Amino acid sequence: MTTKLEILEAAVRNALGDDLQSLNVALGEITVVVKADNYLSAMRALRDHADLGFEELIDLCGVDYSSYGDGVWEGPRFAVVSHLLSIAHNWRLRVRVFAPDDELPIVASLIDVWSSAEWYEREAFDFFGILFDGHNDLRRILTDYGFIGHPFRKDFPVTGYVEMRYDSEQKRVIYQPVTIEPRENVARVIREEHYGVK
Length: 198
Prior knowledge:
5-stranded mixed sheet; Beta Polymerase, domain 2; extended; 20% helix; alpha/beta
């Protein structure tokens, strides 16, 4: 008997054809990887193909693979991961696309396919610096407009580059270099001679 997951896998392979770079089935979920050049056409096919009908983009996020797998990752650094939902068929799909250039990560925008992509793509730009070609309003959404850098990149310092504070003399918020002194936290262990013995 063919399972629902096997039906979905066959339909995805049929709909994507050569646009499909890889397909992985694990823990009852399917993850597909598509090439950046074919990303937009693959996503349209997933939405429009009668056997699939993924009418909802329920999530889109950026990922930084720079130290993935204890630093043994040799693929591209940045990826965009999308989660799709088909209400008609009651199934979900994860789609991953890698940005081909680590220095300037760019992938196509999905706004023309799913309008819900707008804020998700702004968040991925804000936190990871991933650019979305075709996005008409790509600006920061959660960090301050004067923020420097992209805080979810693995090479971004935990303390940041600048801190903001209110200056009562200038009567405005100002930015200044971080003044936090780095310190090493060492756990203090207290050992009692007869702990746990009655």
